[in-house]
Design goal:
Its cofactor is FAD. The protein has 552 residues and is of the alpha+beta class. The protein has 19 helices and eleven strands. The chain folds into three domains: 134 residues, no CATH class; 119 residues, Butyryl-CoA Dehydrogenase, subunit A, domain 2; 253 residues, Butyryl-CoA Dehydrogenase, subunit A, domain 3 (Up-down Bundle), CATH 1.20.140. The longest helix is centred in the middle third of the chain and has 35 residues. It binds flavin-adenine dinucleotide.
């Protein structure tokens, strides 16, 4: 086309080249070091293979899956109930790739190898960077396993399908499927944090199964094959308390269970994931564990989904950082690249430092979860550190992504950059699976009811004693922070925040990573502002950025 043509555009200059496909494992030094440190290094070949997929096809399909939201098909054209959710093929492809690599099942299929949960955390971390919405059914499927094991017969029937690497979205009885996914229904209109407010009822039948009547106000993943659901039992006439039930979508005879999808939620973000409102009209279910023990039973699932919230938020932060660094290393302003400007260096290095601290703590907690069956101290640490990390890391995520977004200037506010999607997703992990206050109260509950958690927490900090004066001082402050029990709940956000920062510092210092001292000085020693970009002038800015960047 000639330059005189009215359709001739000017030459486009000073834009970052597309990041394009990249290797989400091979280019992530922090992730690779962390996985090796916490005992998942034996899975390197598998993680490396998935890294190429996650930074490539998964990333591309993730865009499409979010541009094409799922649609509720409540009825067919003749008025028959369908209660189906229609997904774009890109969604199915993302699910298929996630399951093929075991984001939902790698830890259970490799349970005999120490570090399997760490390796699986890395899979989930890479998956969530590419597409976070599918993380919801994948994490629930992974997390349902310890709860399902409360019912021996149920576990024998369902676990082979749950641990399958096949994605099988067909609506048919579990026995005929090659792979199954699991969801969770706890939250009702009148109460989410306080599940004792549930009104859904379960009535025991002569054959030992239950019929369930009620509703769930948030029921993500209504396309799953079964859900773990809380409902009150009253078979003894007196109401035996909350029970945990497994409710299949399709019954053994091929008929649909009586689960009505009322509508899909119109959400801020998490667009690829079809969160719904449902009603149960005498839906058939089987009890998992004992009547009256429902909360304790399902909390085993929730312990794992909370770890996955830490993984998910760390992943969103990592992906935002990748995008910000890439842009700033190419875009020029005032005669040099953005990443060469002093103040931008401070922002990017500070983001890199926080991203590493969140990823490192997440992988440390994944190791504790992994070791829990073999090591009581690690089990106690996992119990407490999951609540601490869930609170802190999920809270860091939204401001972090906003800051990364700002590094791209106006482009960061435009969908094509990926930052708006990350920004919309960012608050979710701090809301579901127990919101911020609930995590802080859970920390106090654990400390009060399970004193061994306190010992495990301080043992973890003391392992780094002497490594940094600010951490030593912080350990002293934390040692007396719990003394005044009358004001403990009021102060618990402050205490849990400082517990989290001390844990992060301890992990980084013992790992000897380049930013460890800087983290302790700035996060514990007070040499830092409330915003990112407030590192002291002698920080190793270039080294921090180079460590985090995916390419030169
Ligand atoms: C997109 C999305 C998908 C979801 N998917 C599912 C799902 O699949 N299954 C499911 O069961 N649930 C799901 N949820 C529900 C989610 O777990 C709940 O929204 C969450 O647990 C909070 O419950 P709530 O909304 O009833 O808020 P509330 O319980 O009313 O809490 C509101 C606020 O009050 C605070 N609060 C509550 N109690 C206290 C207290 N004692 N002290 C101080 N503060 C307190 C909470 O921290 C919160 O900030 C989903 C939510 C979202 C947004």
């Amino acid at each position: 086309m000639s330059p005189e043509s009215p359709f001739f555009t000017h030459e486009v200059e000073n834009q970052a080249p597309p990041l394009g496909d990249y290797d989400a494992w091979g280019t992530d030094t922090v992730l690779r070091e962390g996985v090796a440190r916490e005992g998942g290094g034996w899975a390197e070949a598998h993680l490396a293979a998935f890294g190429v997929v996650a930074g490539g096809e998964l990333m591309r399909q993730g865009y499409v899956a979010n541009e094409n939201k799922p649609k509720l098909r409540a009825f067919d054209r003749y008025g028959h109930r369908l209660d189906e959710v229609e997904f774009h093929p890109a969604y199915h492809r993302v699910m298929q790739l996630g399951m093929q690599y075991g984001v939902h099942a790698f830890a259970w299929r490799n349970e005999d190898k120490p570090g399997a949960h760490v390796a699986r955390a890395a899979l989930s971390y890479m998956h969530a960077q590419a597409e976070a919405g599918t993380g919801c059914p994948l994490t629930m499927t992974h997390s349902a396993v310890p709860t399902l094991r409360h019912g021996t017969a149920l576990a024998q029937r369902w676990l082979p399908k749950i641990n399958s690497y096949d994605y099988d979205p067909r609506v048919m009885p579990m026995a005929e499927k090659t792979g199954c996914t699991i969801g969770m229904g706890m939250t009702e209109k009148q109460g989410g944090s306080d599940v004792r407010a549930n009104s859904t009822r379960a009535v025991r039948q002569a054959d030992g199964s239950y019929r369930i009547v009620g509703h769930k106000w948030f029921f993500s993943a209504p396309m799953c094959d079964a859900w773990l659901v809380l409902a009150y039992t009253s078979s003894d006439g007196g109401g035996a308390g909350l029970g945990c039930f497994l409710m299949p979508k399709v019954l053994d005879d091929g008929s649909r269970n009586a689960i009505r999808i009322q509508r899909l939620k119109d959400k801020l973000g998490d667009w690829s994931n079809a969160s719904s409102e449902v009603e149960f009209h005498d839906a058939r279910a089987e009890i998992v564990g004992q009547e009256g023990r429902g909360v304790a039973t399902i909390l085993q699932m929730v312990a794992l989904t909370r770890l996955d919230c830490m993984i998910g938020s760390s992943a969103l932060m990592r992906q935002a950082l990748v995008q910000a660094l890439h842009h700033a290393r190419h875009r020029k302003a005032f005669g040099k690249r953005l990443a060469e400007h002093a103040l931008m260096k401070n922002v990017l290095a500070d983001l890199a430092l926080d991203s590493e601290a969140c990823t490192a703590l997440t992988l440390r907690v994944a190791r504790a979860v992994d070791a829990s069956p073999r090591d009581a101290g690690e089990a106690a640490f996992a119990r407490l550190a999951t609540a601490i990390g869930k609170y802190w890391i999920c809270k860091r995520c939204p401001p972090f992504i906003n800051e990364a977004q700002e590094c791209l200037g106006g482009a960061g506010y435009v969908e094509e950059s990926n930052l708006p999607r990350l920004y919309r997703q960012a608050p979710l992990n701090s809301i579901w699976e127990g919101s911020g206050n609930i995590q802080c109260i859970d920390v106090l509950r654990a400390l009060n009811k399970e004193p061994e958690t306190r010992e495990a927490f301080f043992a973890e900090l003391l392992a780094a004693k002497g490594a940094h004066a600010d951490l030593d001082r912080e350990i002293g402050w934390l040692s007396s922070a719990f003394d005044d029990v009358t004001t403990l709940e009021l102060r618990s956000r402050m205490i849990v925040e400082r517990m989290a920062l001390a844990l992060q510092a301890s992990v980084l210092l013992r790992a000897g990573v380049p930013g460890a001292e800087l983290f302790a000085t700035t996060r514990l020693g007070g040499e830092h502002g409330l915003n990112y970009g407030t590192l002291p002038a002698d920080a190793p800015f270039d080294a921090m950025m180079a460590r985090a960047a995916v390419a030169a």
